[in-house]
Amino acid sequence: MLTTDLDGDDEKDKGALDNLLSQLIAELGMDKKDVSKKNERSPVNEVHLVVMRLLSVFMSRTKSGSKTSICEASSLISSATAAALLSSGAVDYCLHVLKSLLEYWKSQQNDEEPVATSQLLKPHTTSSPPDMSPFFLRQYVKGHAADVFEAYTQLLTEMVLRLPYQIKKIADTNSRIPPPIFDHSWFYFLSEYLMIQQTPFVRRQVRKLLLFICGSKDKYRQLRDLHTLDSHVRGIKKLLEEQGIFLRASVVTASSGSALQYDTLISLMEHLKACAEIATQRTVNWQKFCIKDDSVLYFLLQVSFLVDEGVSPVLLQLLSCALCGSKVLSVASSSGASSTSSTSAPAASGSGQAAAQSKSSTKKSKKEEKEKEREGEGSGSQEDQLCTALVNQLNKFADKETLIQFLRCFLLESNSSSVRWQAHCLALHIYRNSNKSQQELLLDLMWSIWPELPAYGRKAAQFVDLLGYFSLKTQQTEKKHPRLLFPHSSTLSGLVEFDGYYLESDPCLVCNNPEVPFCYIKLSSIKVDTRYTTTQQVVKLIGSHTISKVTVKIGDLKRTKMVRTINLYYNNRTVQAIVELKNKPARWHKAKKVQLTPGQTEVKIDLPLPIVASNLMIEFADFYENYQASTETLQCPRCSASVPANPGVCGNCGENVYQCHKCRSINYDEKDPFLCNACGFCKYARFDFMLYAKPCCAVDPIENEEDRKKAVTNINSLLDKADRVYHQLMGHRPQLENLLCKVNEAAPEKPQDESGSSGGISSTSASVNRYILQLAQEYCGDCKNSFDELSKIIQKVFASRKELLEYDLQQREAATKSSRSSALPTFTASQYRALSVLGCGHTSSTKCYGCASAVTEHCITLLRALATNGAIRHILVAQGLIRELFDYNLRRGAATMREEVRQLMCLLTR
């Protein structure tokens, strides 16, 4: 180019260059404020784009034949161009254009691309593409030979990002050019561009400029993370406000009809997972964001009471990242070692496993520490300081009611052990990072919940573990809680006087609702009925299942017609026959849509939130079709003769070649369907479906008065059935008592025959074993089956009552609002949680033998922990604990339980 030969020492050449630059910049019209039409393609804007590319070329070139070193300033052209652009306000101009382009890129992100089954061929020029360098690269021109401005918006975005980058780069190396000023607006809009997912090319340019402006990767990541977190938290608040959940003065309020639907929960999960990804990878940035906005943590804590159980783990993860730090989280996730066992050996069992896990976690933590040391040595201490500051911040906002609701909700009520361990870790670090007064308050709150423990049985293990640890660590415990210790140590006797599990008159919803893990299940093994359309499989399942993932394996794939799009729908209504739901799209809910590539043989449909389904519909919505193959000859399914595709009738035997190869059904509405609508056979592929799921207890949702009547009728029929099963269960009692008497009567015969022959001994033992076997079969077989059936019925009754109460409450509120035109009554998050628990069956009967036995074990565990403290040990002995243990617990219960009691007595008497 001619400009490269200009001499910087010649005034005439300098004047010519300045004149050229001023003409080019004047052509752009940078002084005009209105750039709203800049993103519209027009001849004028195309010329402006070429001018901008020319200026970019000027700044990217140095003087030919220059003998200056690399470290010296740039050449005359690049320096003059940068100075001219800077003085004419090019940086601000580029920012205004970026603002106007942002709406365009956001609209591109929201618009789903239409699925094209076929595409027209692009025109191919016979001549070679022209050389448009340096404005356009040869490869780009080759790909856009027909129209180089086809991607005008992308080219414009690239230029308004590249020009400021080049100006700053030249200004940093040339002291005579003042540095460009990038204000807060630049950081905001560049961060907004990074939030757009469907523009990878633009994202690369934005990342490059933002990183250069920030100066370091750490500052760039922090700026980007803070903006991303702020955007997602605002999205969460907006989403919840649309559902009647508001944040006012740091307190979350909700109307009692604010139940979140699945689609809303999916959107909520997307926001939360984006925050969790940042919080896990760069914990310090998440903590700094929470420090900056002091309402976030308390807001998340309150929201955790209002959302579905599937969302709670992500909320707890966010709280844990902020309050526990990354190092503690890595150790906690790899080992489930309890806090009490780490402080006092008698406080919990399984210390050997905990030690083994802690060794493996130590190795992992060492690797993580080395990696963090490379990034920065002071990150650990900074995290610890932030953890302490955030715990103090949370303590400032959280009242007693909220903390009690948190402890009860996640440490006791949750049926997931992983959630209870998450809450355990969170509560432990809240305690450790709190001051003494807050520690005592937390301990007092836990002791106030202690009387409720018999209602939670086995689920109270983590709660008791924390209670023992806090009691040992907190000063003056022995003076504040002796009255609480005494009644619970003396009630150990009353907790073990029940007769058994399977003869309970009131089935326990804790003991009989064990935590069922997700597992892979073949769809064919749990379906009871299937119907088909030409593109859909409609399946009725054995019962309600919670489904987290669906895997589709495609075998015997034919390239003639391949699946392009799969839609997964679900329904949770009980139907007599699945045909009731066929061809009724309004009764289905869409769970996920996935796109397949040509020839793909396996697809995993990961659901952001597990769905509860009684019926599934898999729809093959779109296909890759080879139209050329449709004109080929086909094989007759009867005589195997070659038949032309059109009209598709065999000239030899007269058979229709488009009939189903399996059931010989002919679809007269569609000549060549993908699926046979009679038997579901597909000649193009074979599909196998695998569900990552678990069975669950669910009832039909109530949406109108007809559903309500059905629910009431269903509850009455279930109660009648429960009554019949209960009487059947009670009918086993006389037989069991009779067998027990026979076992006791046969026992004395054994020592009398000891001097006799071996045959006598074997016959006597055989007769005794026969009664024991009959007893075991009667109790563990027939009784257990009847009791399990009764438990499932009671669970369904509770679930139906819950749906009924929620529907009635919504109807009452709707009537109140329409009659008085007043707002719905609102509750705080903890009040809302307390109201929702009523009638849900979260707590069990305190008469349950299983829960009583579990609480007895928890009591022994807690007493073993407390007995390590000398002052508390003297109080326990003075209250007569040794006599209680000797009379009621030393000789009863399982062998492991009796061993625990012996160790406790050794602790008390040493």
TrEMBL record:
Residues 687-811 form the E3 ubiquitin-protein ligase UBR4-like domain. It comes from the Eukaryota. GO terms for biological process: ubiquitin-dependent protein catabolic process. GO terms for molecular function: ubiquitin-protein transferase activity. Residues 337-381 are annotated as: Disordered. Residues 337-360 have a biased composition (Low complexity). InterPro entries: UBR4-like, UBR4-like_dom. This is Ubiquitin protein ligase E3 component n-recognin 4. It comes from Zosterops lateralis melanops.
